[in-house]
Amino acid sequence: AQTVTQSQPEMSVQEAETVTLSCTYDTSESDYYLFWYKQPPSRQMILVIRQEAYKQQNATENRFSVNFQKAAKSFSLKISDSQLGDAAMYFCAYRSALYSGGGADGLTFGKGTHLIIQP
Amino acid sequence: EAQVTQNPRYLITVTGKKLTVTCSQNMNHEYMSWYRQDPGLGLRQIYYSMNVEVTDKGDVPEGYKVSRKEKRNFPLILESPSPNQTSLYFCASSLTGSGFSYGYTFGSGTRLTVV
């Protein structure tokens, strides 16, 4: 079974600065998808960015970018120019590209990193 | 607007009283899933459905039932709720196949308290 590890339960950053959230995962598969979800106090789960494992180029969405290291099984999220609205729980998630059939199938989440933005 | 709609948003109930949390999506997604979120444990999958009449257990299915009679609806049923099912519940949907790469769309969550 795949596992996702977020080693930083909490991170704090000054407004306008850059912060990197860590995520590692364990899998024997070669084809999979990785995601970062944001959960603000409203508790809504919002997709921030996604990466397909077969793509070498790191995904970027405005101020959000990832550093995907497939061999190291690492998928960190970088937030540039941090804003107060970025304060939230951030979850890293893994999904196999194949439907295995029977048993658990779906997104596997890390336990989350609580990001605090200091004004 | 493309969305997943869960109801209710908040629910307080007593041990043993059957309840249903509804979930509906308007994106024609084949795949639907239920997760529960608990502090320090992240999100864990309860059940999922690849299509109509096709459901399967996730990581924590005990005490829950689901059905998928229509493509858009995927209700979560607690036949005899217990206090350890107090949690925040999310319904989610997605495309299948290469569509999994787009991630899941989540509902707004249901905060359930069982006393």
Question: How would you describe this protein?
Answer:
The complex is a heterodimer of chains A (119) and B (115). Chain A is mostly beta strands and 119 residues long. Chain A has no helices and twelve strands. In chain A, strand 5 (32-39) and strand 6 (46-52) form a beta hairpin. Chain A starts with a strand and ends with a strand. Chain B is mostly beta strands. In chain B, 0% of the residues lie in helices and 50% in strands. Chain B has strands at 4-7, 10-13, 19-25, 31-38, 42-51, 54-57, 65-66, 76-78, 87-94, 105-106, 110-114. In chain B, the strands form two sheets. In chain B, strands 2, 4, 5, 6, 9, 10 and 11 form a seven-stranded mixed β-sheet that branches. A four-stranded antiparallel β-sheet of chain B has the order 1-3-8-7, with no helix packed on it. Chain A binds chain B through residues 33, 35, 37, 43-45, 47, 50, 52, 91, 95, 97, 99, 102-107, 109-112, and chain B through 33, 35, 40-45, 48, 50, 56-59, 88, 90, 92, 96, 98, 100-106, 108-109.
Q: Give the % helix of chain B.
A: under 10%
> Kindly, what is the distance between the CA atoms of the first and last residues of chain B, rounded to a whole number of angstroms?
36 Å
Structural class per helix/strand content of chain B? Answer: mainly beta
Mean of pLDDT of chain B:
94
Along the chain, the helix and strand elements of chain A come as EEEEEEEEEEEE
Q: Major beta sheet of chain B, specifics?
A: 7 strands, mixed
Structural class estimated from helices and strands of chain A: mainly beta
What's the β-strand tally of chain A? 12
Gap from first CA to last CA of chain A: 41 Å
Strand content of chain B: over 45%
Q: List the uncertain runs of chain B.
A: none
Low-confidence region ranges of chain A: none
* DSSP strand content of chain A: over 45%
As a whole number of angstroms, the C-alpha radius of gyration of chain A is 14 Å
Tell me the total number of β-strands of chain B. 11
Total number of helical segments of chain A? 0
